[in-house]
Specification:
By secondary structure, the chain is of the alpha+beta class. Helices cover 54% and strands 12% of the residues. The protein is built from 5 helices and 3 strands, in the order αβαααββα.
């Protein structure tokens, strides 16, 4: 029986799933929006939205909890200094999943874009490689 077992397994082991969502969360916080499969995008909300709620608390314990998920001091700083203040006064729903019309070529997986509902300034780390090209 599947009582109280929420979340999709995505055909991965628990450690692989945890690493996948950590990496997707890092990419979303860095770039502001990412393209992935629809199911991964919907499950990613369960990781990212609590992180933004932590950023709204903005205390030392919240920073340490965010670091335990992200593992990067630069991303934690960006989360608390840039992304969090953009959502002050918003009671939830920090991300938006937009379904794309074309499925992924090869396996026909439905694709989606996950992005923040409020505009967050692009980080210098994400902008630097774009300028170098």
């Amino acid at each position: 029986m599947r009582h109280s077992n929420s979340g999709k397994k995505l055909g991965r082991t628990p450690s692989h799933r945890k690493a996948l969502f950590r990496n997707l969360a890092k990419a979303l916080l860095t770039h502001g929006k990412i393209r992935t499969t629809e199911i991964k995008a919907k499950e990613l909300r369960r990781v990212v939205e609590p992180l933004i709620t932590l950023a709204l608390r903005n205390d030392l314990h919240a920073r340490r909890q965010a670091y335990s998920v992200l593992g990067s001091h630069q991303l934690v700083k960006r989360l608390f200094d840039e992304i969090g203040p953009a959502f002050v006064g918003v009671p939830g729903g920090y991300t938006r999943v937009v379904k794309l019309g074309q499925p992924r070529r090869g396996d026909c997986a439905p694709l989606a874009i996950i992005e923040f509902t409020r505009t967050v300034a692009a980080s210098e780390a994400a902008a630097a490689p774009a300028e170098a090209e």
